[in-house]
């Protein structure tokens, strides 16, 4: 049994370990280690296409995570005040968003956006005073929208768990002590849920930064880092790609651990066990 | 404002409905300024709902709640001159003790000067004997200390009325007794009206100036503790406040004799004739050892259990033909206590028999 488990972990993590290992390979081969070198990292980070893709990914990840954090938190707060039946419906919808495969979300978002553009662009064209009306198309906006929507479900689930453990009486206590509803939100509720909002933000960032499937459908002509990696892999796996993958891996791991830490620290404090 | 109100809190035919359930039904009550009032009743009797309607967390379905003579309909909690001590303290976990206590002062507009806030916060902490704890985090403190922080957080605002929702329920017995004394002296010191919700009759009797006994959404009796105990208005009050022995029978014409089911006759203070339930407090009964007399008004029986209470001894006595009765005897009177199985005689003064129409 123990051997079996060991094999499972081996198969899971060995490929990842190999990617990390070969990113430091001095030679060009992706199967034969010929010496330690950071050359591929230098090469990767002087590749303007790659840097452009990285920049795109960072902008998209940051914006979509920010939107998801804000709207996800708002949704979580609103759901707290809903009737039990409505809440059940929205809980189900959020869970569905997380369960539905990325391919489906990708296609669905693409179709929806195409429909919106086909109405919006002609309408804008007819209303616009000059001859060159702005055209909406796939790009930053569409990826941010798709990622933001998905991440919002994740954020609102995390934040809701925190709100549920918050207890109504500290909100009432704040009301009792002359704080207006907004004052209570700012001084009591927000500081209490902030770690979970941040954790949600980090997870949303990680998700958007790593996502290939949804982005691939709605990216249009924009290239994100995962799309760039996918495209370059067709020309063969190079240590340069390994270097990129390793960088992404380390960044993602860091963000996820940070998110875990934020969520854990909070539960400790509420249970008062320190 | 009109002339200074004599009552800090007044309920005018207040009802509260939750869907089909009537939690509070048509209560009229006035709490005089500076009094310590205990709202006593079994769980679900509507006492907490009353407190929450004063705090503004619930709105009455009918009627008006007045605070200091002002009707409070539709006034949100943050605009009411009352403060509440919550059952589970409801301290803000992300703030230290000082920030918790000064919270109410910091919400006031126009702003209270920072130095004034600090001064009054320190005073309040001093008052609850937590002088050196200002910078502690609340989860580092014991239950009793958290309780005192909650108290300081409320009284620092000098409210017209302090509402206490079972504030001592979570403390162990010894701490609870200490806090009872502390609360009482605090109330005297501050002169603020205290309204305490509790289901613990001992707590209600020992601390308050008035006990307000509630049952099924209504106030059954509001009176000083001793009166509630000695002259309960109904059988429910008699039962809820203190231990009782029940006897059912009929008051005979003339009104001075209670005929029990087995034909026994007991003397009573003049009553309206009819079917009644009589109640006898365990400590109003005198227990004598020895074979019982043949007199009709005597209660002879056999001791079945003896419970040592520390300062007193409680006996369960099986009365011949009547069933079991509880008798409490002082320790001093019980220097030579009766043993289980021993024959004893019970007697009492006619005025200690509380009689209620059945």
From TrEMBL, chain A:
Residues 54-259 form the ABC transmembrane type-1 domain. It is found in: Cell membrane. Signal peptide: none annotated. CDD domains: TM_PBP2. It is a multi-pass membrane protein. It comes from the Bacteria. The chain crosses the membrane at residues 54-77, 89-117, 137-159, 196-221, 241-262. Keywords: Cell membrane, Membrane, Transmembrane, Transmembrane helix, Transport. Its main location: membrane. Belongs to the binding-protein-dependent transport system permease family. CysTW subfamily. This is ABC transporter permease. It comes from Mesorhizobium liriopis.
UniProtKB/TrEMBL annotation, chain B:
GO terms for molecular function: ATP binding. Residues 9-241 form the ABC transporter domain. Keywords: ATP-binding, Nucleotide-binding, Transport. InterPro entries: AAA+_ATPase, ABC_SmlMolc_Importer, ABC_transporter-like_ATP-bd, ABC_transporter-like_CS, Mo/tungstate-bd_C_term_dom, P-loop_NTPase, Transp-assoc_OB_typ2. Pfam families: ABC_tran, TOBE_2. It comes from the Bacteria. The keyword Nucleotide-binding applies. Belongs to the ABC transporter superfamily. This is ABC transporter ATP-binding protein.
